[in-house]
Amino acid sequence: MIKLHRVTKYYENKIPAINDINLSIIKGDFVFVTGASGAGKTTLIKLIFSSEKPNSGEIVVNSENITRMSPKEIPYFRRKLGVVFQDFKIIQNRSVYDNVAFPLNIIGTRGKLVKKKVWQVLKWVGLLQKKDSLPLHLSGGEQQRVAIARAIINNPLLLLADEPTGNLDPKLSYEIMKLFKAINARGTTVVIATHDKNTALKFSKNIITLDRGKLAG
Amino acid sequence: MIINKTRYCIRSVISNIQSNLLINLTALTTIIFTFVIFTIFLLLVINLSEFKRNWIERVHVLVYLEDKLNKESINTINNSLKEHPEISQVTFVSKEEALKSLNDSLEGQDGILEYLNNNPLPNSFEINIKPEFLKIESIENLINKIDKIKGITDIEYGQKWLERFNGFFYFLKITGMTIGAFLLISSLFIISNTIKLMVYSRRDEIEIMKLVGSTTRFIKIPFYIEGILHGVTGSAASLLIVYIIYEIITFNIASGFNIYFGTNTFLFLNTCQFSIIILCGLTLGLAGTFISLKSLKEFKI
Fold first, then answer.
1. Which terminus of chain B, N or C, has fewer Cβ atoms within 10 Å?
2. pLDDT in tens, B171-205
3. What's the CATH code of the domain at B126?
């Protein structure tokens, strides 16, 4: 599903955020990427969804070499992925329904189909009753569930999450992780970046540890 | 699919305008102001051109003759003038007739001419020009030819007045173009900055759009629609304002035009000129949006 071959990425300070990494994640995996702050977890996630380009090396996602992808091809590639962030990245002045429908609306999906899919996914994440609420009126856990619902509305092959429980208390974090596990059970490959190794250990044996941009174990 | 995307874009534009109403109104006011000034100058130029055309159509050339010429020489000149294809009619005005005409025109001020011992006015010919030659170039060409005829002292067709008029007309055009260019650049700058502010206010949404696989082109479309809306509504509103001003002027003051301009028809823009103004608005909106979006890093994938 995901292959990184000798990937290096550094920013303006020239210190590698990712340093000559090789790794492979197979289809259907439930993988955690852990490490301390600055270890390169976020950079790795960004490289996989092509928000950043590596300075060297090759990245293949779902048989597509994204390092050789033109900027015009990237949006189409991203439509096959779902991405979830620590800060939710949901539109505050739009309802839960509109936020979840967003990926479908921008690709011009028919209204009826949008409605059907949004209802299904909102029901699945337990937010159907709050479909008309604004994010401001939701708890952190609910906002993250909106973000997850939006990420899976297109039935992605791969779901990436960058510190998805970073802003949540342990109980809510546990529920969100259970949701990711359920998504994985439906066949989606899930990669979660987290600094919390203990939570990671509770949910998967498949853990990639990064230390200053290098694989540590 | 296209219908759904279009619906999304329109909703996006409406929500953008609603949430940034004041900025949008400011931009729109500036564009309206620009186009009002621009259209007023255009109307002035159009009407002065029309006035000039009317004046030329009614032009009479006066050819003044030397005093000592006998009847035979005057006839020769008459025949020479009639040979020119541009001339439709030649009328001889004797110095006596000229004095009588002057006397008539000074009705009520008879005393002015009574101290004259001799008639100082020369014999002259009044020339009418065929309609197809009523162009400034043709008239000047004819004058150059007539000027070579022996016995003619002076030719008059209001050229000094026309030169002054042309000077004023040129000044008006240059002033109009300078002010117009300045205002157009200002409007471009304002549209561009308004769009930039719209982009900043929607920065989070743009980021999310990129995340979920929206193409850059699709992200930009609502901003282009907004720019076009600014340009088109601004120019259309300015035309409406200028039309109201035009109606007020023609209703209240137009009768006075007849005295000064020989016509009381004050023209408004025709359909073609009307469309050009709207098209200018559209181009201005597009260009302003293009300039602002080109420099923003928010659209880099």
1. N
2. 888 888 898 888 888 888 888 888 888 888 888 88
3. 3.30.70.3040
Residue given tokens 């009407």 in the structure block: B47
pTM value > 0.90: no
What is the C-alpha separation between B1 and B23, in angstroms, rounded?
32
For residue B281, which of B15, B30, B2, B16 has the smallest C-alpha distance?
B30
Of A91, A107, A111, the CB nearest to B205: A91
Query: Which of A46, A32, A29 is closest to A18 using CA atoms?
Result: A46
**Domain membership flag for residue B1:** no
Buried/exposed code over B266-287 (b: 16+ C-beta within 10 A; e: otherwise): bebbeeeebeebbebbbebbeb
- Paired tokens of A58: 């090759």
Please judge whether A89 and B8 are an interchain contact, meaning their C-beta atoms are less than 8 angstroms apart: no
The amino acid present at B109, given as its one-letter code, is Q
Could you give the number of structural domains in chain B?
2
Judged by a CB distance cut-off of 8 A, whether residue B14 touches chain A is no
Tokens of B96: 């006596």
Partner B contacted by A95 (CB < 8 A): no
Span A136-189, pLDDT tens digits: 999 988 999 999 999 999 999 999 999 998 888 888 888 899 999 999 999 999
What residues contact residue B212 under an 8 Å CB cut-off, 6+ apart?
Answer: A78, A79, A102, A103, A106, A150
> Is there a contact between B204 and A91 if contact means CB atoms under 8 Å apart?
yes
Helices B159-201, B21-57: inter-axial angle, 10-degree rounding: 160
Chain-chain contact of B210 with A75 (C-beta, under 8 angstroms): yes
CA distance A209 to chain B (A): 25
Q: Parallel, antiparallel, or unpaired: how do β-strands A2-10 and A64-65 relate? A: unpaired
Task: Kindly list the distances between the CA atom of residue A104 and the CA atoms of A100, A114, A187, B152, in Å, as whole numbers in the listed order.
Answer: 8, 6, 21, 88
* Same domain, yes or no: B95 and B131: yes
User: What's the ipTM?
Assistant: 0.86
Distance (Å, whole) CA B117 – CA B84: 37
Distance of CA B24 to the CA centre of its chain: 30
